[in-house]
Batch of 4 targets.
Target 1
Amino acid sequence: MQALCEAKIPPMTDLHVEMLKRSTLLVTCPRGWEREARQELRRMLPGATVESLYIGGNIIVQFDEDAGEALRRISDTKTWTIAHVTPVQMRMPIGPGREWLERMQQAAARLGAADTERSFMVAVDRRGDHHFSSHDVVMAVADAFVEGGKPPVDLETPEQVCSVEIFQDLCYMGMNPAEHLLRKELRRMRLWAPGGRPISRAELKLREAIRQFELELPEGARALDLGAAPGGWTRVLAEHAAEVVAVDPGDLDERVESLPNVTHLHCRTEELDPAQIGHFDLLVNDMNMEPQRSAELMCEMAPLLQHGAVAVMTIKFTTRQRSRHVREALAVLERCYGEIEVLRMPHNAKETTAVMRLSEEAQDASV
Ligand SMILES: C[S@@+](CC[C@H](N)C(=O)[O-])C[C@H]1O[C@@H](n2cnc3c(N)ncnc32)[C@H](O)[C@@H]1O
């Protein structure tokens, strides 16, 4: 390989290459599952030092026994969060500039030489910002081993692999038989499917209420959502209703604001003009508000509800006198609603959920 930025390259003695004395494995796991992955590794390798690297989803394991035996154990054990396992034998600090390509090449030459008769490849996993690409590293490091076409390069099924694992300013390298690179099946994956992460914890409350109270909406239903921001409930409602009117002076999450069947009224409930917003099949209220006042607003909205409409209200415990808050809210709600059920659900924290139907008297007075 042509010397890169020759004038700036420090002598090898300045490279701070450290040949690792203990057997060392770099292990990846899904981000957010590092704790579980560390526990799995400690169970399989008692006595090993198991630490997370500062870039999420990466763990370093060091131990005194032979790496081959440890790899066999990891390979044979049913694991949940372990993805890739890569043995490494060398570590060096690096910088972001292209001059580090040649330094990595020089350092790679210190690894045990590749068997020139067995096929070979360089695999690079680069995390961070550098002025070189992963491909640049592959080419530079491969030049430390390949001479006159030997060992033969095989990118599909190599017999030996030089792994280069870069974590911004730290580079690990390992030369291994290909079978020593473990690729395990992930049994525990993301907590949420892509796009399924809740907008807010509140979203789970409404999903629970819908399940628990077996709420159903008629075809083409309209829902009114009071205290909607950031939009967890609105998103759930938008899955069930033809149209959702979301009322909150606060902003909705853009994933909700952009839904075609959501209209956001950027105001307080007290400022609504009932004559302007039509009628609804479902009213929900998650406003941060003293429960009695919140219940009064539920009654003010009752004339907007269709026959048989259901209403859901979170009774917020604004003080420690929880039962007083429930009692006072119910006393107001009973003026307009019947069949009121109050249930504390797992995602309720300092609050409880009331589900009710428009009472017949209120129905007669409305619509
Ligand atoms: C707990 S958050 C609602 C969370 C929402 N249900 C969700 O799933 O993302 C309470 C909301 O009530 C709103 N709020 C408080 N007083 C209000 C009022 N008078 N009118 C409308 N919204 C109000 C707040 O702005 C706040 O966004």
Target 2
Amino acid sequence: MKKTVPKAVVFDLGKVLLDFDFGIFARRCAPYSRMESTAFLEVVNQSPLLHRYESGLMTDQQFYESVVALTGFTGTMETFAEWFGAIFTPIAEMVELHQLLVARGIPTFVFSNTNGLAIRSVRKDFPFYRTFTGEILSYEIQSMKPAPPIYEALEALTGLRGEELLYLDDRSENVEAGGQRGWTAWIHSDPTVTVPRVLSLWDSV
Ligand SMILES: [Mg+2]
């Protein structure tokens, strides 16, 4: 059976390499605001405000000030930044997969809808993050998956396209947009499925 061996592996971050829970952040902040944690959560989790922030349309400071205005949060920007970044836990099997690829000399790229506060924390807290070949981050590109410009940016950075790219993401709309460009794009939900499936591509090489 013919197998196309990818020249690079493109990883979504959230729910692929790192689990995250905005609930942790909301429960920490709510007592210092005029909101219950569930209402606080709605301000930040998958909200229009977060979408604007992750689209690169506001600075960290503007995001903080918007949350303060909407919730009455009384903490400083420093506290806010620290708590906002403390919502991630590594998905061990997937981090290990990434390390295996790096050890084999296979280029790997981060491809994430994210923001500056989150990425600075992730870079500081998780050494594996610093072993990627490169990164394409929505807030820097001012485009979010599944819109085409961020995919074009990844192709431009890597110099690769189509089946040369293997792409893993937990969101079907993002995977579909990659597939439409000819990328080998796989939905990720379970490491026990994804890890052997990825490694099998290099089995006979
Ligand atoms: Mg994700």
Target 3
Amino acid sequence: MKRRLLLGAIGCAGLNWQSQAWSASGTPASGPAPGQRVVIVGGGWGGLSAARALRQSAPELDVVLIDRDPQLRALPLSSPWLVDRTPERLARIDLATLARQLGYRFVAAEVQSIDRTQRQVHSTQGRFGYDWLVLAAGIDYDYAAWFGDDTRASAQARTQFPAGFMAGELDSLKRKLEEFRGGDLVMTIPPPPYRCPPAPYERAMLIGWWLKTRRIPGKLTIIDASAGIPRFTRLFAEHYRDQIVHQPHSQELVIDPFARKLSTLDGEMGFDHAMLLPPMQASKLVAQTGLLGTNAQGQATRWAGVDPLQLRSLVDDRVYLVGDLLDTVSPLFGHYPKTAHIATRLGASAAQQIAQLSRGSAPTAVALPSSICHVWLSAEPAEHLIMDAQYRQRGDGLIVQTVRQQDNPQPRDEDLQWAQTLYTESLGVPAA
Ligand SMILES: Cc1cc2nc3c(=O)[nH]c(=O)nc-3n(C[C@H](O)[C@H](O)[C@H](O)COP(=O)(O)OP(=O)(O)OC[C@H]3O[C@@H](n4cnc5c(N)ncnc54)[C@H](O)[C@@H]3O)c2cc1C
């Protein structure tokens, strides 16, 4: 394994490697060629799903998956665990072991840059050449939206007041919640789009339950840039009046993470602890690599510009885009919800496109994704809301979204079954 990895890295860095002639559209000019290479950046839900699907549909391709984190840590189902409402229910996945089991290569490394002209990914473990790149690097927080170029303030917010919307922060956030003895706790919710739209409200409800049942003399103030979700607004008022204050439409948020103070147009407050969730944007690699989308005014957005029916970058046929980093996909509803379910579906679809291209076939239209979310409405007794989003193409080619919501007043681990099915069917994790 080590030898293969070394050869791959050396070959990509040094050798002048050419597989075959390519047409301008990125379609092979002749039939399949051996040794074509796919590099997947990001071993989250989208990247792992793409790797698994490539192994199944194009086993002849050389697939390398790169992630800075050697483990997949699931964000779905994390909020009840944060407040000890449930144990940690989803296993952490060792990416090297999974890659060995499924037959692709995993490299634990930070991707520093991507040279699209040379088709090379530059990482802390060397350079990797590719014929196709799958970029599935998720999101980054945009602390600069709050602090400009004050990197000290950004670092203070990131380390002292983690939001817990990136998997690597979950253990630290849990420790900080365990240390919270009372006083003012703050949660900020940025303007959309952000990960899993109901997630901040579900987490707030569970924290309200935790404060109440543990008799912690604290109050959670939600500084929300938007109106909120009416169902949760009612729940906060009816069940957690003494624990949760929801401040919708909060504007002109200014935070001092050293003095633990914030202000909005509604006034100022201090806080004892906070979950500071800043605006989100696509992974910084997207901007660095020149893959940002543009809005109707021709200005760059914060997300990766994509052809939603092919999942290719708008500016580079060799780059497939998967998961939370996508820009809008339809003028009818904007972004796909940034969910693990959508990311896995997109990963499989991108893999299908690459498999077809690598064999010299014209790619067929991608299957549009779908997404199911199981959201906690009540902690005790447990009550869930099932949000089911489906997508189809309309006669004029635009993608249409249909969302159905259904209460699940007596959940029987449907959320766990949903996640385990994605683990096994989409990511290829062996059933426990
Ligand atoms: C609290 C919460 C609850 C949620 N609940 C649900 C739910 O119930 N259902 C659901 O479907 N979704 C849910 N989600 C959303 C889901 O977690 C995300 O949509 C999903 O993680 C997106 O997958 P992704 O592959 O796009 O990104 P990620 O899973 O974030 O994967 C991106 C990967 O890229 C890696 N990476 C990034 N940059 C680099 C670099 N430069 N070098 C190397 N590696 C890099 C990262 O380490 C990461 O592993 C929830 C999210 C949150 C925050």
Target 4
Amino acid sequence: MDDRIAISQTRNGDQLTLALTGNLNENAEFPQLDVNGVREVVLDLSGIKMLNSVGLRTWLLWIKTFAQKTGLVFVNCPRHVVDQMNILDGFLPTHARVDSFFVPYFCESCDATESILARRGQDFMEGTADTREGVTLPDERPCPHCQKPMEMDVLRDRYFSFLKYRK
Ligand SMILES: [Zn+2]
């Protein structure tokens, strides 16, 4: 199976959406992006399966080629992508906006896991997002499988810290 990263591009007016699927690793290749006339690049990262340091380095070089020329919006970021936003300087360029990302929940009763999509303006806002008041997702939610409470499977102040100083 070829898990090399694939990127589908959709142009809608002055907005360019890139949906990435596959593995961000040593086989990752990125297209030269022409952002002439593009107001905003939307990166949909829900399809990123795994990432490693070589792939991340390729990512950093690629995003630098257009990051300063256009607006940047990250959407549907899975947990392993959010982890990189929190630890890897430059992964999320400073002016980029995160519109949605997944928050994992775990059920101790039946071992079920769920990823809940947190949406900007609805479930969180930058600047306050690492506080309890800023992220309105609850610490517990009913498990869809056994109805017992399932718990947020990340530490709030760590997982949401990438939003802390952004506005
Ligand atoms: Zn359960």
